[in-house]
Amino acid sequence: MNRTGYENLLQAVGICVSARIPALLWGDPGQGKTAAIESARTAGWHVETLIISHYEPSDFAGLPVLVDGRVDLAPPAWAVRLRDHAGPAIAFFDEFSTASPALQAAALRPLTHYEVGALQLPPTVSFLAAANPADVAAAGWELAAPTASRFVHLDWELPLEVYSEALVTGAWPTMPVYALPDDFDRHLLAQRVLVSGFLRARSSQLSSVPKAAVDRGRAFPTPRTWDYAARLVALARAVEASDAVVRLLVAGCVGGAAAHEFLAWAAAQDLPDSRAILEDPTGAWFTGARADHVYVTLQGVVGAATQAGTPQAWSAAVVACCTAADQAGVDPAVPAVRALLRTRPAGAALPPEVKVFASVLALAGLLPGAGSGPGTTGSGGTGTGRAARR
Predict the structure, then answer these.
(1) Which residues lie below 8 Å from residue 203, measured CB to CB, with a gap of 6+?
(2) What is the full DSSP assignment across 242-309?
(3) CA pair distance 168, 183, nearest whole angstrom
(4) Among residues 247, 136, 158, 259, which one has the least CA distance to residue 208?
(5) Rounded Cα gap, residues 303 and 190, in angstroms
(6) Mean pLDDT score, 320-331
(7) Which CA distances in Å does 380 have to 221, 323, 333, 376?
(8) For range 304-317, the mean pLDDT
(9) How many other CB atoms are found less than 10 A from the CB of residue 70?
(10) What is the CATH class of 1-179?
(11) pLDDT for the residue numbered 372
(12) CB burial string 97-118: b at 16+ within 10 A, e below
């Protein structure tokens, strides 16, 4: 790894911290993992570093105490400090792979529910962990698959170039941290649309738990880790991180093979702007488009209409689905129109063009009575219109 690779890794870790998604840094002892994480203090973050193997499961589940005749679970001091800190904070679980499986399992509750005993941690807390590979760790344990799937896995290395320079100058690279940008939701929608489209095309990649124990302790695809990937790439794009950082993040979530396939697929997409489609839903957006392209584009339209939250946007999205059905075929447009009909806002008119989906939606129970007559699909008709308003 060279200096650029190290800075990309630092930025990837900072993006995980900023998105409040737990990350696990894998690297040999003495590589500066702890110092890099604690550098967030220079940006005003509070950091609680715990050598996790020195603790007991009760330090995460809470210590039983008797209060007014009932047993309560008292939180440890580190959790109280995190709760009482007014700004952003990091709970850093160091030497994670040397903790016993029981202790690793106990640490999952703070990671997933932000609870330590009876204490609820604020959403401003981020979780990080560091581990040595089992072959170099003192009394190391392989991570169980349920534990591994709760982390983004990043391989850590301190390059000689960085070490030799910083050793002389004393200026060590620091981990960048970010506030969520104003346009984060737009980027998040775009990435969730891409993940949804990719998994429609590659359904076997939704969940794939490795057979080998050593591989189950690292990144692999699950619904949770795909959601991690979408959120992290959204923030990476929002802060204009490089493609190399994006690759680190996606591979850290779902593994190298699935990440390569997803990123190659996503790079081949050239999607029109969803808001432009809502403004002109009858335009030639889908002529000659592949089925997977149509599906992904319409998922973006559904998301944009949902964000807009108006009856007009909803109706325009339905018209766009009908346009896609006419220009590229009904099948790739069906999931989008089904999603829209399940989330129809009050007062939204059902466009008459939806009759192109009448038989499919009637079978799904979304348009009872559709197809029974020429007036059944209009907003003022006697069949579908009444059913949709009920």
Answers:
(1) none
(2) -HHHHHHHHHHHH-HHHHHHHHHHHHT--PPPHHHHHHSTTSSSSTT--HHHHHHHHHHHHHHHHHH-
(3) 41
(4) 259
(5) 9
(6) 93
(7) 47, 21, 24, 8
(8) 93
(9) 7
(10) alpha beta
(11) 38
(12) bbbeeebbbbbebbbeebbbbe
> In the structure encoding, which two tokens stand for residue 220, read together?
């692999």
Give dist(CA 10, CA 30) in Å, integer.
16
Three-state secondary structure call for residue 7: helix
Residue owning tokens 């973050």: 45
What kind and span of H or E run contains 115?
strand 115-116
Q: How far is CA 254 from CA 149, 208, 224, in A?
A: 9, 9, 9
Q: With 80 as the cut, is the pLDDT of residue 333 above it? A: yes
Burial class (CB in 10 A: 0-12, 13-18, 19+), 279: exposed
Tell me the two tokens of residue 358: 């009448």
Q: Cβ of 123: how many Cβ atoms within 10 Å?
A: 9
Residue 380 pLDDT level (bands cut at 50, 70, 90):
very low
This prediction has a pTM of: 0.85
Burial, 204: exposed, middle or buried (Cβ in 10 Å; 0-12, 13-18, 19+)? exposed
Q: Match 């959120």 to its residue by tokens.
A: 231
Q: Residue 96 corresponds to which amino acid?
A: F
Residue 330 zone, left/alpha/beta (φ > 0; ψ -120 to 50; rest): alpha
Local structure of 154: helix, strand or coil: strand
Task: Show the CA angle centred on residue 189, arms to residues 280 and 254, nearest 5°.
Answer: 140
Q: Do 334 and 298 contact (CB within 8 A), yes or no?
A: no
Q: What's the pLDDT tens digit per position in 218-260?
A: 999 999 999 999 999 999 999 999 999 999 999 999 999 999 9
SS3 4: helix
What DSSP string describes 307-345?
A: HH--HHHHHHHHHHHHHHHHHH-SGGGHHHHHHHHHTPP
| Whole-number pLDDT of residue 384 | 36
Three-state DSSP at 83 gives helix
Average pLDDT over residues 259-283: 92
Partners of 115 in beta bridges:
120
pLDDT tens, residue by residue, 167-213:
999 889 999 999 999 999 999 999 999 999 999 888 899 999 988 87
Task: Single out the residue of 27, 23, 58 nearest to residue 253, CA to CA.
Answer: 23
